[in-house]
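Let's sit down with a protein and look at its sequence and fold side by side. Once you have written the record down, we can walk along the chain together.
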Amino acid sequence: MTEDAPDQLPRCYSPASLPANGFASDEALVVDEDGYEYLANHKVDATYAQMLSIGLWPLSETTQLKGSFDLSQEPLSYARCERCVLVIAGKSETDQKHYLASGGTLKVTELSDTKIAGSLTNVRLVEVTINESTLATARVEGGCEIEIPSLAFSYEEPTEPIDPHVEECLVPESYGPTQFDYVWGYESNSNGYFYMASELPAAIGLPMVTLNVEAFVAGTGTFNLAGCETSSASCDRTVVLEAQSVRGDKKYYVGRSGRLVLTELSEDVMVGRLEQVELIEALYDEYDGFTPIPDGCTTRIDSLEFSSRNVDP
Protein backbone atom coordinates (compact mmCIF):
# COMPACT_ATOMS: atom_id res chain seq x y z
CA MET A 1 0.00 0.00 0.00
CA THR A 2 1.39 3.35 -0.98
CA GLU A 3 -1.44 5.52 0.33
CA ASP A 4 -2.54 6.01 3.93
CA ALA A 5 -6.21 5.90 4.93
CA PRO A 6 -7.05 9.64 4.78
CA ASP A 7 -5.55 10.03 1.29
CA GLN A 8 -6.99 6.81 -0.08
CA LEU A 9 -10.56 7.20 1.19
CA PRO A 10 -11.86 9.80 -1.33
CA ARG A 11 -10.48 7.84 -4.29
CA CYS A 12 -11.11 4.29 -3.14
CA TYR A 13 -14.15 4.77 -0.85
CA SER A 14 -12.27 2.72 1.74
CA PRO A 15 -9.26 3.21 3.98
CA ALA A 16 -6.19 1.15 3.19
CA SER A 17 -6.68 -0.95 6.32
CA LEU A 18 -10.02 -1.93 7.84
CA PRO A 19 -10.13 -2.29 11.64
CA ALA A 20 -10.86 -5.51 13.52
CA ASN A 21 -14.09 -4.17 14.99
CA GLY A 22 -15.18 -2.36 11.85
CA PHE A 23 -17.92 -4.69 10.65
CA ALA A 24 -20.36 -5.04 13.49
CA SER A 25 -23.67 -3.56 12.30
CA ASP A 26 -26.59 -4.99 10.30
CA GLU A 27 -25.21 -8.51 10.43
CA ALA A 28 -27.02 -11.31 8.60
CA LEU A 29 -26.59 -14.88 7.40
CA VAL A 30 -28.13 -15.73 4.04
CA VAL A 31 -28.54 -19.42 3.25
CA ASP A 32 -29.85 -20.78 -0.06
CA GLU A 33 -29.25 -23.59 -2.52
CA ASP A 34 -25.93 -22.02 -3.57
CA GLY A 35 -24.35 -21.85 -0.14
CA TYR A 36 -23.83 -19.46 2.77
CA GLU A 37 -23.15 -15.73 2.92
CA TYR A 38 -22.28 -13.70 6.01
CA LEU A 39 -22.97 -9.99 5.63
CA ALA A 40 -22.03 -7.04 7.84
CA ASN A 41 -21.80 -3.29 7.36
CA HIS A 42 -19.28 -0.69 8.49
CA LYS A 43 -19.52 3.08 8.12
CA VAL A 44 -16.23 4.95 7.99
CA ASP A 45 -18.02 8.30 8.14
CA ALA A 46 -21.19 9.90 6.80
CA THR A 47 -19.88 9.88 3.22
CA TYR A 48 -18.40 6.40 2.75
CA ALA A 49 -19.60 2.95 3.79
CA GLN A 50 -18.34 -0.60 3.35
CA MET A 51 -20.14 -3.94 3.35
CA LEU A 52 -18.30 -7.19 4.07
CA SER A 53 -19.44 -10.39 2.39
CA ILE A 54 -17.97 -13.77 3.29
CA GLY A 55 -19.40 -16.23 0.81
CA LEU A 56 -19.06 -19.99 0.97
CA TRP A 57 -20.20 -21.28 -2.41
CA PRO A 58 -19.37 -25.00 -2.85
CA LEU A 59 -19.07 -26.00 -6.50
CA SER A 60 -18.90 -29.72 -5.67
CA GLU A 61 -20.07 -32.05 -2.92
CA THR A 62 -16.47 -32.52 -1.75
CA THR A 63 -15.78 -28.82 -1.10
CA GLN A 64 -14.77 -28.19 2.52
CA LEU A 65 -16.39 -25.17 4.10
CA LYS A 66 -15.10 -25.48 7.67
CA GLY A 67 -11.40 -25.16 8.41
CA SER A 68 -8.53 -22.80 7.59
CA PHE A 69 -8.16 -21.67 3.96
CA ASP A 70 -5.44 -19.82 2.05
CA LEU A 71 -7.34 -17.27 -0.03
CA SER A 72 -4.48 -16.96 -2.51
CA GLN A 73 -5.50 -20.42 -3.73
CA GLU A 74 -8.98 -19.21 -4.68
CA PRO A 75 -9.55 -17.92 -8.23
CA LEU A 76 -9.75 -14.14 -8.46
CA SER A 77 -13.26 -14.56 -9.77
CA TYR A 78 -16.56 -14.14 -7.95
CA ALA A 79 -18.06 -16.68 -10.36
CA ARG A 80 -15.54 -19.40 -9.48
CA CYS A 81 -14.29 -18.80 -5.93
CA GLU A 82 -15.74 -21.22 -3.38
CA ARG A 83 -14.55 -19.25 -0.36
CA CYS A 84 -14.96 -15.60 -1.27
CA VAL A 85 -14.21 -12.52 0.80
CA LEU A 86 -15.65 -9.40 -0.81
CA VAL A 87 -15.85 -5.80 0.34
CA ILE A 88 -18.24 -3.39 -1.39
CA ALA A 89 -17.27 0.23 -0.72
CA GLY A 90 -19.33 3.13 -1.92
CA LYS A 91 -20.62 6.67 -1.72
CA SER A 92 -24.12 5.54 -2.76
CA GLU A 93 -25.96 2.48 -4.07
CA THR A 94 -24.92 3.37 -7.62
CA ASP A 95 -21.40 4.64 -6.94
CA GLN A 96 -19.48 1.66 -5.58
CA LYS A 97 -16.19 -0.21 -5.81
CA HIS A 98 -15.71 -3.96 -5.31
CA TYR A 99 -12.71 -5.53 -3.60
CA LEU A 100 -12.10 -9.29 -3.81
CA ALA A 101 -9.62 -11.17 -1.61
CA SER A 102 -6.39 -12.20 -3.34
CA GLY A 103 -4.58 -13.52 -0.28
CA GLY A 104 -4.67 -14.06 3.46
CA THR A 105 -6.40 -16.62 5.63
CA LEU A 106 -10.08 -17.34 6.14
CA LYS A 107 -10.91 -19.59 9.08
CA VAL A 108 -14.42 -20.98 9.52
CA THR A 109 -14.99 -22.61 12.91
CA GLU A 110 -18.80 -22.93 12.94
CA LEU A 111 -21.29 -23.23 10.10
CA SER A 112 -24.96 -24.17 9.97
CA ASP A 113 -28.21 -22.83 8.53
CA THR A 114 -28.49 -20.49 11.50
CA LYS A 115 -24.93 -19.81 12.68
CA ILE A 116 -21.51 -18.92 11.35
CA ALA A 117 -18.25 -18.03 13.10
CA GLY A 118 -14.63 -17.61 12.11
CA SER A 119 -11.88 -15.10 11.42
CA LEU A 120 -9.89 -13.27 8.76
CA THR A 121 -6.12 -12.81 9.05
CA ASN A 122 -3.89 -10.66 6.82
CA VAL A 123 -6.50 -10.61 4.06
CA ARG A 124 -5.52 -8.54 1.01
CA LEU A 125 -8.24 -7.37 -1.36
CA VAL A 126 -7.86 -5.87 -4.83
CA GLU A 127 -10.29 -3.75 -6.79
CA VAL A 128 -12.30 -5.68 -9.37
CA THR A 129 -15.34 -5.27 -11.58
CA ILE A 130 -18.08 -7.90 -11.34
CA ASN A 131 -20.70 -8.42 -14.03
CA GLU A 132 -24.10 -8.51 -12.30
CA SER A 133 -25.52 -11.12 -14.68
CA THR A 134 -22.61 -13.53 -15.19
CA LEU A 135 -20.42 -12.67 -12.15
CA ALA A 136 -17.49 -12.47 -14.57
CA THR A 137 -14.69 -10.72 -12.68
CA ALA A 138 -11.83 -8.57 -13.91
CA ARG A 139 -9.07 -6.91 -11.89
CA VAL A 140 -8.98 -3.12 -12.29
CA GLU A 141 -5.65 -2.07 -13.77
CA GLY A 142 -4.02 0.37 -11.34
CA GLY A 143 -6.99 -0.02 -9.01
CA CYS A 144 -7.08 0.41 -5.27
CA GLU A 145 -6.10 -2.21 -2.72
CA ILE A 146 -7.19 -2.66 0.89
CA GLU A 147 -6.42 -5.07 3.70
CA ILE A 148 -8.07 -6.59 6.75
CA PRO A 149 -5.22 -7.44 9.19
CA SER A 150 -7.41 -9.25 11.71
CA LEU A 151 -11.15 -9.67 12.09
CA ALA A 152 -13.33 -12.15 13.98
CA PHE A 153 -16.90 -12.68 12.80
CA SER A 154 -19.78 -14.48 14.41
CA TYR A 155 -23.52 -14.48 13.83
CA GLU A 156 -26.40 -16.59 15.09
CA GLU A 157 -29.98 -16.04 14.02
CA PRO A 158 -32.21 -15.07 16.92
CA THR A 159 -34.77 -17.66 17.85
CA GLU A 160 -38.35 -16.75 18.62
CA PRO A 161 -40.63 -18.84 20.82
CA ILE A 162 -43.01 -20.77 18.57
CA ASP A 163 -46.62 -21.39 19.45
CA PRO A 164 -47.07 -25.16 20.07
CA HIS A 165 -49.87 -25.35 17.49
CA VAL A 166 -47.70 -23.65 14.87
CA GLU A 167 -44.74 -25.89 15.71
CA GLU A 168 -46.84 -29.03 15.25
CA CYS A 169 -49.18 -27.93 12.47
CA LEU A 170 -47.17 -25.17 10.70
CA VAL A 171 -50.28 -22.95 10.93
CA PRO A 172 -51.98 -21.10 13.82
CA GLU A 173 -55.40 -22.10 15.11
CA SER A 174 -57.01 -19.27 13.15
CA TYR A 175 -56.25 -16.38 10.79
CA GLY A 176 -57.44 -12.79 11.07
CA PRO A 177 -59.03 -10.61 8.36
CA THR A 178 -55.81 -8.70 7.57
CA GLN A 179 -53.56 -11.71 7.07
CA PHE A 180 -52.44 -13.12 3.71
CA ASP A 181 -51.82 -9.53 2.62
CA TYR A 182 -48.89 -10.28 0.29
CA VAL A 183 -50.66 -11.03 -2.99
CA TRP A 184 -48.11 -12.54 -5.33
CA GLY A 185 -50.06 -14.04 -8.17
CA TYR A 186 -53.24 -14.52 -10.19
CA GLU A 187 -53.54 -16.83 -13.17
CA SER A 188 -56.33 -17.92 -15.47
CA ASN A 189 -55.99 -20.68 -18.05
CA SER A 190 -57.92 -23.55 -19.58
CA ASN A 191 -58.01 -25.27 -16.17
CA GLY A 192 -59.57 -22.39 -14.25
CA TYR A 193 -58.78 -19.34 -12.14
CA PHE A 194 -56.11 -19.28 -9.43
CA TYR A 195 -55.46 -16.62 -6.77
CA MET A 196 -52.36 -16.81 -4.53
CA ALA A 197 -51.36 -14.79 -1.47
CA SER A 198 -48.95 -15.36 1.41
CA GLU A 199 -48.79 -14.76 5.12
CA LEU A 200 -45.16 -13.65 5.46
CA PRO A 201 -43.40 -15.02 8.57
CA ALA A 202 -43.48 -12.55 11.46
CA ALA A 203 -40.09 -13.78 12.70
CA ILE A 204 -37.12 -15.86 11.58
CA GLY A 205 -37.83 -19.57 11.83
CA LEU A 206 -41.60 -19.42 11.38
CA PRO A 207 -43.29 -21.24 8.48
CA MET A 208 -44.31 -19.64 5.20
CA VAL A 209 -48.04 -20.11 4.49
CA THR A 210 -49.69 -19.53 1.10
CA LEU A 211 -53.42 -19.13 0.48
CA ASN A 212 -54.80 -20.52 -2.78
CA VAL A 213 -58.34 -19.74 -3.95
CA GLU A 214 -59.16 -21.92 -6.95
CA ALA A 215 -62.21 -21.77 -9.24
CA PHE A 216 -62.36 -24.39 -11.96
CA VAL A 217 -65.48 -23.00 -13.62
CA ALA A 218 -66.63 -19.46 -14.39
CA GLY A 219 -69.29 -17.66 -12.44
CA THR A 220 -69.75 -15.45 -9.40
CA GLY A 221 -71.89 -16.00 -6.33
CA THR A 222 -71.75 -17.66 -2.90
CA PHE A 223 -70.44 -21.23 -2.80
CA ASN A 224 -70.52 -23.73 0.06
CA LEU A 225 -67.18 -25.46 0.60
CA ALA A 226 -68.66 -28.44 2.45
CA GLY A 227 -67.47 -31.72 0.99
CA CYS A 228 -64.50 -30.34 -0.93
CA GLU A 229 -62.10 -32.02 1.49
CA THR A 230 -63.26 -35.46 0.34
CA SER A 231 -64.08 -34.71 -3.29
CA SER A 232 -61.57 -32.04 -4.18
CA ALA A 233 -60.80 -33.63 -7.55
CA SER A 234 -64.38 -32.90 -8.65
CA CYS A 235 -65.03 -29.81 -6.52
CA ASP A 236 -65.61 -26.72 -8.66
CA ARG A 237 -64.12 -24.30 -6.13
CA THR A 238 -61.60 -24.89 -3.36
CA VAL A 239 -59.65 -23.00 -0.72
CA VAL A 240 -56.23 -24.45 0.08
CA LEU A 241 -53.41 -23.47 2.45
CA GLU A 242 -49.87 -24.63 1.76
CA ALA A 243 -47.54 -24.34 4.76
CA GLN A 244 -43.78 -24.93 4.62
CA SER A 245 -41.30 -24.81 7.48
CA VAL A 246 -37.75 -23.45 7.22
CA ARG A 247 -36.59 -27.10 7.21
CA GLY A 248 -38.64 -27.81 4.10
CA ASP A 249 -41.45 -29.76 5.80
CA LYS A 250 -44.77 -29.14 4.07
CA LYS A 251 -48.44 -29.50 5.04
CA TYR A 252 -51.62 -28.89 3.06
CA TYR A 253 -54.98 -27.73 4.39
CA VAL A 254 -58.20 -27.85 2.35
CA GLY A 255 -61.47 -26.08 3.14
CA ARG A 256 -64.15 -28.46 4.46
CA SER A 257 -66.81 -25.94 5.47
CA GLY A 258 -67.66 -22.28 5.18
CA ARG A 259 -68.38 -20.07 2.20
CA LEU A 260 -66.42 -18.71 -0.74
CA VAL A 261 -68.03 -15.55 -2.12
CA LEU A 262 -66.87 -14.49 -5.59
CA THR A 263 -67.99 -11.00 -6.60
CA GLU A 264 -65.77 -10.70 -9.70
CA LEU A 265 -64.20 -13.43 -11.81
CA SER A 266 -62.59 -13.09 -15.23
CA GLU A 267 -59.34 -13.80 -17.05
CA ASP A 268 -57.89 -10.67 -15.45
CA VAL A 269 -59.31 -10.48 -11.95
CA MET A 270 -60.70 -12.43 -9.00
CA VAL A 271 -62.36 -10.56 -6.13
CA GLY A 272 -64.24 -12.03 -3.21
CA ARG A 273 -64.18 -13.02 0.43
CA LEU A 274 -64.00 -16.04 2.69
CA GLU A 275 -66.57 -16.56 5.46
CA GLN A 276 -66.28 -19.00 8.37
CA VAL A 277 -63.91 -21.29 6.44
CA GLU A 278 -62.58 -24.28 8.37
CA LEU A 279 -59.63 -26.12 6.83
CA ILE A 280 -58.36 -29.61 7.62
CA GLU A 281 -54.92 -31.11 7.09
CA ALA A 282 -54.82 -33.34 4.03
CA LEU A 283 -52.49 -35.37 1.87
CA TYR A 284 -52.12 -34.11 -1.68
CA ASP A 285 -51.78 -36.15 -4.86
CA GLU A 286 -51.47 -34.59 -8.29
CA TYR A 287 -54.08 -36.95 -9.76
CA ASP A 288 -56.37 -37.82 -6.84
CA GLY A 289 -56.44 -34.42 -5.16
CA PHE A 290 -56.71 -34.13 -1.37
CA THR A 291 -57.30 -36.86 1.18
CA PRO A 292 -58.08 -35.64 4.73
CA ILE A 293 -55.81 -36.93 7.47
CA PRO A 294 -57.83 -38.51 10.33
CA ASP A 295 -57.28 -36.48 13.51
CA GLY A 296 -55.10 -34.08 11.50
CA CYS A 297 -54.53 -30.44 12.33
CA THR A 298 -57.11 -27.77 11.56
CA THR A 299 -57.21 -24.00 11.18
CA ARG A 300 -59.84 -21.33 10.45
CA ILE A 301 -60.32 -18.21 8.37
CA ASP A 302 -63.36 -16.49 9.85
CA SER A 303 -63.45 -13.48 7.54
CA LEU A 304 -61.06 -12.39 4.81
CA GLU A 305 -61.52 -10.21 1.73
CA PHE A 306 -59.23 -10.75 -1.25
CA SER A 307 -58.59 -9.15 -4.63
CA SER A 308 -56.11 -9.98 -7.36
CA ARG A 309 -55.95 -6.26 -8.12
CA ASN A 310 -53.69 -6.02 -5.07
CA VAL A 311 -50.87 -8.09 -6.60
CA ASP A 312 -47.57 -6.82 -5.20
CA PRO A 313 -44.97 -5.65 -7.72
The two ends are 46 Å apart (CA to CA).
